[in-house]
Write a structure and sequence with these properties.
The protein is an alpha+beta fold and 306 residues long. The chain contains five helices and 14 strands. Strands 1, 2, 3, 4, 5 and 6 form a six-stranded mixed beta sheet that branches. It has a four-stranded antiparallel beta sheet with strand order 12-11-13-14, sandwiched between helices. The N and C termini lie far apart (58 Å). The C terminus is likely disordered.
Length: 306
């Protein structure tokens, strides 16, 4: 981060601590900082979530819209990601400073979610070749405290978990065009199946070691970072018992001035997959626990029409 200043002594302290598997905040090299997650925070969105990872604060909202599928994929829906970096998040984002980072994050999310073994876009199809649902995922970075990619991917998956798509009441064919009638009742909808949706894991190489969930100070000391996308396990998001599905590698991105030899890159990918499995399991448990609390609420009827 350009706005961060570290003395030579601080850098040496961080690098030497990581070599001994003891980071400046007391974590080991593969520990994450505390994560706070809140869902359904935007009332006018189809789904939303706010996630705080230490000093990193992310807000995600999902909107649904009926669209026409692409000719090459008539049976699939669409999903698009838009990232906005608040100027108050860090001095680096003032003016147009955050545009490059926002483009990088949205591109890697787009690649991760369009992998064949990741998010199932078939569930967004209404009429093959005619109509489909299009998801607009708006991501706002409120505060930047390091490890943006991981935090964004967690918040996006949580927001998609809470997203509900209206049922199609009727469809009329008028001259070959499809006229849809959607329910106005917010309870007359279905949730998305997001178990296989990918998570991003960032591994920063500092010295000769890799660390997950780097702080802003650790990112400043890193010579190269690797971001990998890993598909999720649907069993972690199912209310009924089901067989575990193997998590698969979906995408990769690198940044920084350094490079990696093939063996080091393979080791980083393996460590990232292990971290993604742990994150996915923890996220699934948290979302299911919150879903149970919400399901205990029953819709009340008011007035004389009961």
């Amino acid at each position: 981060m350009a706005g961060l200043l570290l003395s030579r002594t601080e850098k040496v302290y961080i690098v030497n601590g990581i070599e001994e598997d003891f980071r400046s905040d007391g974590r080991s090299n593969y520990d994450y900082r505390p994560i706070e997650l809140e869902t359904n925070v935007v009332s006018h969105a189809s789904g939303s979530a706010r996630l705080r990872l230490a000093n990193t604060d992310i807000l995600v909202g999902v909107k649904t819209e009926v669209d026409i599928p692409k000719p090459e994929t008539p049976g699939l829906g669409k999903i698009e990601f838009f990232v906005d970096c608040s100027a108050n998040a860090t001095p680096e984002f003032e003016g147009r400073g955050g545009e490059q980072l926002a483009s990088r994050i949205s591109n890697i999310l787009q690649r991760a979610y369009h992998a064949s073994q990741a998010f199932n876009l078939k569930q967004l199809c209404i009429f093959e070749g005619k109509q489909c649902w299009k998801l607009y995922v708006d991501i706002l970075i409120l505060e930047c405290g390091g490890n943006l990619c991981d935090a964004v991917s967690l918040a996006v998956k949580a927001a998609l978990f809470t997203t509900r798509i209206p049922f199609v009441k009727a469809a009329l064919m008028d001259g070959g065009d499809v006229d849809l009638q959607l329910s106005d009742d917010p309870f007359d909808s279905k949730p998305l199946v997001v178990g296989t949706a990918p998570l991003l894991v960032t591994l920063c190489k500092i010295g000769n070691k890799f660390v997950v969930d780097p702080s802003a100070e650790e990112e400043f000391c890193s010579i190269v970072s690797v971001v990998i996308g890993v598909s999720g396990n649907p069993a972690h998001y199912a209310t009924e018992k089901m067989d575990n599905v193997e998590c698969k590698f979906t995408t990769i991105g690198m940044s920084g001035v350094g490079g990696l030899v093939p063996d080091t890159l393979k080791s980083a990918i393996s460590q990232g997959i292990i971290a993604a499995k742990c994150l996915d399991s923890a996220l699934g448990r948290s979302l299911l626990r919150e879903k149970e609390d919400v399901c205990s609420y029953k819709r009340d009827s008011y007035g004389f029409l009961k």
